[in-house]
Amino acid sequence: MPIVAPSLLASNFLRLQDEANMLNASEADWFHLDVMDGRFVPNISFGLPIIQQLRKATTKVLDVHLMIEEPEKYAEAFKQAGADILTVHYEACTHLHRNIQQIKNLGMKAGVALNPHTAIGLLENILQDVDMVLIMSVNPGFGGQHFIPQTLEKVRLLKQMIIQKGLSTLIEIDGGVTLENASAIVQAGADVLVAGSTVFNAVNPLETIAALKNS
């Protein structure tokens, strides 16, 4: 069964406590939190204060995805805010190995994210150091976009690399995950499904999360 990580970016921020309660009662494994700075991506989302409040509202894993430039300046603050997993973008890190070591030294699990145009092969020399690879299946910045089909091939290639190296690195997919394509994504090798609009716009979010869990 995949790990299901609903993306709070698609939640109702006026009812954030209710949304957190719903996720706590659901089969969701993680809370996925997209932090955007308006520089690395053309949008601004939320930051440390929201994560601090959500930390108080759940015992589930806080999976924080930094779509920001210079993430090393804020890693410690996100740890203090309650992040369990901190994912930085390959494209935003000049010294990626240093970024990964910083995150691990702070006691968090470290992830690296790839934009749709970034090749899997670029992770060859860092894969053994990361706990998770997040493959963007839409262009980052906005929710509600359609899944990019080529992502499935990227997942297969990455899974082969992980197996060949004898690693246990998780593969997370973020963007355009629906009830219709979730099974194909899992079959390709994904371990973690991030779903925003699919969950929070559903008539019955609890049933939708359960269906994703059974993909």
Automatic annotation (TrEMBL):
Cofactor-binding details, from the entry: Binds 1 divalent metal cation per subunit.
Binding-site positions, substrate: 7, 65, 141-144, 174-176, 196-197
Keywords linked to the UniProt accession: Carbohydrate metabolism, Isomerase, Metal-binding
The protein's Enzyme Commission number: 5.1.3.1
Keyword Cell cycle: no
Cited InterPro entries: Aldolase_TIM (IPR013785), Ribul_P_3_epim (IPR026019), Ribul_P_3_epim-like (IPR000056), RibuloseP-bd_barrel (IPR011060)
Binding, a divalent metal cation: 32, 34, 65, 174
A molecular function GO annotation: D-ribulose-phosphate 3-epimerase activity
N-terminal signal peptide: none
Catalytic residues (UniProt): 34 (proton acceptor), 174 (proton donor)
Catalysed conversion reaction: D-ribulose 5-phosphate = D-xylulose 5-phosphate
Pathway of action: Carbohydrate degradation
Cofactor names: Co(2+); a divalent metal cation; Fe(2+); Mn(2+)
Family, per entry: Belongs to the ribulose-phosphate 3-epimerase family.
Function: Catalyzes the reversible epimerization of D-ribulose 5-phosphate to D-xylulose 5-phosphate.
UniProt protein name: Ribulose-phosphate 3-epimerase
Lineage of the species this protein comes from: Bacteria, Pseudomonadati, Bacteroidota, Chitinophagia, Chitinophagales
UniProt gene name: rpe
